[in-house]
Specification:
This protein has about 110 residues and is of the alpha+beta class. The chain contains four helices and two strands. It starts with about 25 loop residues before the first helix and ends with a helix.
Length: about 110
């Protein structure tokens, strides 16, 4: 969210960091949740082609793909971007993700 001084504060819901394999929500429940989210969401996924993929919970799975489809279908404010790199691309090469983040904050 944007602060009065023009800077931004990053926030997230701790529940979203729990891997699906833990069984927190079923896919039916996740689809219901995704269908009800209307706030702007920007999801940046690293394409690990040519690199060793990171292990769970950061792997891109069929369940993630289904959630992306659901968000695209139900949320006009959803942006999905694929960048080259691995899970740590935002640390190793911030210039790749910075324009996407900047653009999403300006919306």
């Amino acid at each position: 969210r944007k602060l009065p001084n023009g800077s931004y504060v990053f926030s997230y819901d701790i529940r979203t960091t729990i891997p699906l394999s833990v069984g927190r929500f079923s896919m039916v429940e996740l689809n219901d949740i995704c269908a009800s989210i209307k706030c702007p969401i920007t999801l940046i996924r690293a394409d690990t082609e040519g690199e060793k993929p990171f292990t769970l919970p950061f792997e891109y799975t069929h369940d993630h793909e289904e959630m992306v489809k659901c968000l695209k279908k139900h949320n006009v404010n959803f942006q999905f971007h694929v960048v080259s790199g691995n899970h740590f691309v935002h640390i190793n090469d911030p210039g790749v993700v910075a324009p996407i983040v900047r653009s999403s904050l300006e919306c």
